Amino acid sequence: MDDDAVSLNNCKILIVDDKAENLELLTDFLEPEGYEVAFATSGKEAINIATIFLPHLILLDVMMPGIDGFETCRRLKSLGKVKEIPVIFVTGKSELSDIVEAFSVGAVDYVTKPIRQEELLARVTTHLQLQALINLRDELISTLRDKTLELEKLSKLKEQQLETSQHFSHIGELVGELTHELGTPLSVVKTAISHLNEKQQELALQVQKQSLAKQELNAFIDNTAQSCEIVLSSMDNVMHLIDSFKHIVVGEFSGTVSECNLHDYLHNIQYVLTPKLKRTPHTVSINCPQTLHLISDTGALSQVIINLINNALIHAFEDNAAGTIDIHVEHQDGNIALYIKDNGKGIECERTSKVFDKYYTTRVGTGGSGLGLYIVKKLVETRLKGNIALSSQPGEGTVFSIVIPQALEN
């Protein structure tokens, strides 16, 4: 056999003909080429053998006892196991109407008798190769589909990991800021208590020597009062910072719906960000009704507000410019509207439609992930059940408008 486009080794062929001499002739042509041959002498027998033998190709006569070749082919094409097997009619009928009917019932080719060996083998080889290529194509498509699904799963996992990394990076920054900020008041407390301890030891020694003067006792009392005032003030600052941090960060991890006073909650966010803001020339102001209550995923809300403030600190202002970030809150018919506005350099019109796109960043190569505002939009829409919009003009600053339900169901 000549070299094939694909391997045809061990291909199986079913010959269907009621004439023994035709079966013998076709077998003599095919077996030397390495094909495995099976026989049937009627249409019904052909159908039964085909479903068991599962040939790669069927050579089918038209004129046979019982059901003819056309009906046999029609029935084969209705059976799931064998309907894709190519059928070549090998027959003495050469009328155009017969050829048309053969193709109409599902045949792939039509060979007329007397049979010419070279022609038959060429057609058999062609259709076996074609069917093998079709099968290979289907296998490749199936493999490609499986690989595509696998890549989609890996891509989604990577996105989830990136989003989680972004979240933990944000939490890690807050923890770092908190640790740094607690250092100062705790150092003051330690200094005040150490000073007070030294004075107490001096006082105890004077009492032991019975040399304590009234003036020195009064000085110790005054010194103690001042030290206590410093300690209490510093500890109030520490407790305020820890309490604000607890409300914000614990809420971010819980993912539950809870009620809060929105005015106090926003000021807690501002207080948690105070250490970071101290290192910038920028300020954050909050305008929110003092009695406005919100029932929502407050952890998601804090992520949104902190991300938008951080986004403004990074992108909104020219170097060394002192900017302002204003948070304005309104109650609107069962909804809460929050406006986060900066007076920075603004955003060009062609970029405003892209800022919420995943991986879009203007800081390529400088650490920007392009996920910050994408995560913000996702949090607003999925966890807060609201919507977010952006308006900006170059030189006039940027406003993020968020509208969320005042009360979410648990």
UniProtKB/TrEMBL annotation:
GO terms for molecular function: phosphorelay sensor kinase activity. The keyword Lipoprotein does not apply. Its EC number is 2.7.13.3. The keyword RNA-binding does not apply. It catalyses: ATP + protein L-histidine = ADP + protein N-phospho-L-histidine. It comes from Pseudoalteromonas rubra. This is histidine kinase. Residues 12-128 form the Response regulatory domain. InterPro entries: CheY-like_superfamily (IPR011006), HATPase_C_sf (IPR036890), HATPase_dom (IPR003594), His_kinase_dom (IPR005467), Sig_transdc_His_kin-like_C (IPR004358), Sig_transdc_resp-reg_receiver (IPR001789). Residues 177-408 form the Histidine kinase domain. CDD domains: HATPase, REC_PA4781-like. It is an enzyme of class 2 (transferase). The modification 4-aspartylphosphate is found at D61. Keywords: Kinase, Phosphoprotein, Transferase. It holds the Pfam family Response_reg. The lineage of its organism: Bacteria, Pseudomonadati, Pseudomonadota, Gammaproteobacteria, Alteromonadales.
